[in-house]
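Lab notebook, design round three. We kept the backbone fixed and only want residue identities now. Task for the bench partner: fill in a sequence for the structure below.
Input structure tokens:
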């Protein structure tokens, strides 16, 4: 391969890398997320968050949520009242928001749940007895 051919190949590789970097820096998303209104996930969901850490007493918290068509949710997680937003991304339900505990503290909620239209599950960090730890989340849609 001649020197000019090698320089042309090298220049093509560099330019391709610059084009990729500029698309990423411009905020181009690889896949748009669907809104909750496009799915059958709106409704009443109940389930449990189970602590999966290695403690003597396993923590558990009942979850009771209502997902609205506009992508908002509210309900209870254990003794905390919680609210936030829901959206679908790559087939997973993302619930983000805040849980307000009876003592006034606020815990962040960030669940990414796989599954189907009537059952969702996943792993998350949740608070049990005032300490953050790993948890398994399982939700079932209740009949309307």
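Proposed sequence:
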């Amino acid at each position: 391969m001649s020197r000019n051919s090698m320089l042309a190949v090298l220049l093509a590789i560099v330019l391709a890398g610059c084009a990729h970097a500029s698309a990423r820096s411009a905020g181009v998303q690889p896949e748009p997320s669907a809104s909750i209104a496009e799915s059958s996930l709106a409704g009443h969901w109940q389930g449990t968050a189970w602590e999966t850490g290695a403690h003597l007493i396993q923590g558990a918290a009942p979850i009771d949520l209502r997902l609205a068509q506009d992508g908002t949710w509210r309900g209870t997680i254990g003794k905390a009242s919680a609210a936030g937003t829901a959206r679908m991304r790559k087939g997973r339900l993302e619930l983000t928001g805040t849980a307000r505990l009876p003592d006034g503290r606020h815990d962040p909620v960030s669940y990414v749940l796989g599954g189907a239209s009537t059952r969702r599950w996943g792993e998350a960090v949740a608070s049990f007895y005032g300490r953050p730890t790993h948890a398994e989340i399982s939700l079932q849609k209740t009949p309307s």
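Keep this in mind before ordering anything: The chain has a mean pLDDT of 79.
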